[in-house]
Amino acid sequence: xQSALNWLRKQPIATKLKMLxxxxxxxxxxxxxxxxxxxxxxxxxxxxxxSTNSHAAMISENVSAAMMFDDKKAAQEILAxxxxxxxIEMAALYxxxxxxxxNYYQNIKDKEEYALPPxxxxxxxxFTLQHLxxxxxxxxxxxxxxxIYIQAxxxxxxxxxxxxxxxxxxxxxxxxxxANAFLRxxxxxxxxxxxxxxxxxxxxSEHGDYTVRVDGGTPDxxxxxxxxxNHMLERIQRRDSDLEDEITQRKHIQxxxxxxxxxxxxxxxxxxxxFNEHLSHVVRRALKFDIxxxxxxIDLDNFKLVNDTLGHHAGDxxxxxxxxxxxxxxxxxxxxxxxxxxxxxxxxxxxxxxxQAAMVAEKCxxxxxEAVQIDGNELYVGASIGISVCPExxxxxxxxxxxxxxxxxxxxxxxxNNYQIFLPEMNQQxxxxxxxxxxxxxxxxxxxxxxxxxPQVDLATRRIIGVEALIRWVRPELGxxxxxxxxxxxxxxxxxxxxxxxxxxxxxxxxxxxHDLGLTHLSMSVNLSGRQxxxxxxxxxxxxxxxxxxxxxxxxxLELTESMLMDAGTTTIKKLEQIRALGILLSIDDFGTGYxxxxxxxxxxxxxxxxxxxxxxxxxxxxxxxxxxxxxxxMAHSLKMSVMAEGVETEEQAEFLLANGCLNSQGYLFSKPxxxxxxxxxxxxxxx
Length: 688
Ligand code: C2E
Ligand code: MG
Ligand code: MG
Known about the structure:
binds ligand C2E, Beta-Lactamase, 22 helices, 8-stranded mixed β-barrel, 5-stranded antiparallel beta sheet, 21 strands, rod-shaped, Alpha-Beta Plaits, alpha/beta, 4 domains
């Protein structure tokens, strides 16, 4: 039973339904047939009893006379009339005393088996499995004459029952077959939608395809299930597509965030973040495969100036142009990033030798060197490039970056627009520079600065017309340090501003002393640094010093460099005019080393051009220098400026200059820069 149930459990619904139907309809049919059979059996028996009863009554009536007169023969004949009833097997008549009177047997061979009761059986009837026995009194007008006994065979009943059973079985079989066929049809109504659900679920679970739908046509529970299933699929599909939309949107945002996090939106180049990530990756690979990687730090020269004077828009345009030019200078596979305001960094992979990096750097500088047109302005951008190589210089990414930065710093200190490959000494120099910076900071308060003065002479008369104040740093243990060794550092760290102020004040005080001594024709030249010139309070400070020291402002000459003017916009011209308005005179120092053109110079209120000593030193032999010197003198005259030659060391130079119209000069031929006391000696000599 249990195993049958287990088997049934594993069957598909169709089989289960069929089995259920067969079990219920079979049970109903079998029970109904059984009831019918039993009823029929009862009625057959009842019929037999009634016919046997009526035979007994008929015999009783007919035999009463014969029994009354004890006529056995007549009684025998009457009893034999039962032959017409094949069911009756035997019959007997008993007399009043209960003794057997006559008997009758029908077709009975073995009479032993069918023994008659020896005496009158009690009245009534009895059914056994095979027979019906019946006993009745025989009477005439209430006179009891004896009894009749009949035994009937149930064979006819059974054969009738057998036929009946056969008919029932046939009907049962046919109705089961019909019911089965009908059920099969009905069953498909139920199982087909279920199969469709199953197939849909399988498709979904196998292919994840939520577009399938089941037929939800029938209005019953299965139809409802199908419709709910479809509805559920629709919702899943909608949620799926919503989810997909959201994922796409998120991916989009992620890509944008990635781009924002990794790219610079001005130049579209990767940013510092990306650069660092990529470099660490590249360095790891280089160490693993024993290949070289080069890091180049590129810092634009004078970018801040463009930004300040032409505005941020022009600054951004310049950065984009620079990014383009740098990218064009690289090979495929090299990486360029913008790592700061005007700082770019390059990674060169698979480099054989550091000289390759030098070539790339040269190409970058050459490309950057070409003029840039922005908003009608022609600009020149230079850059300082620092190079470090992995693994030679460092195998640690941060160390490598630091070295490239140090090298770049060196390039800057070497006059910009050049590249430097990192050298271990640079670190020592950087350290020296650090010490220099710290000492410089204390030099002013420790009064370690001194001014030397170099005479400027009238070439025709050889008389001193003025002096140039040149700073010296007298370091306790190191002796006298020349300005070229500390002025650039002071420019960079800003100390040049208080130092420059000290120079101007000291020089003016000295000039006042000399003027008070009667040397009123004497002028004083003071060098002004770019950084100092940019100070907003410059004008006030100059005016204050002139006032405090009570000098004649027209005896003060401020020396500017060409580069200071070249960086200039209208504010510079205004500033120069304001200085001139104080009565102070202006000179351009080291003239000829910059790029000033005549039309450019015309805009500035300049009084004197100082021809740089590099043109003077090879005069008069060098024809090119001679030509340049003559041109400068001619230009100064046409601009109504005076000319002063620097670095005059020989008589020939002095003669050449004078012959070509340069009236004033300064140089070792007359005197090196000397302390103030020695200048006084010159005058004593002059006057002697
Ligand atoms: P500079 O203003 O062009 O000064 C002239 C330089 O040429 C001085 O060098 C001077 O000693 C040198 N010199 C003069 N005659 C001759 C000569 O015949 N032959 C040679 N070979 N050299 C000669 P110094 O004093 O070393 O100054 C160098 C530079 O340092 C100056 O160039 C100037 O640009 C700067 N400097 C000096 N003092 C100051 C200062 O107080 N403030 C600022 N901002 N810069 C200063
Ligand atoms: Mg000078
Ligand atoms: Mg000079």
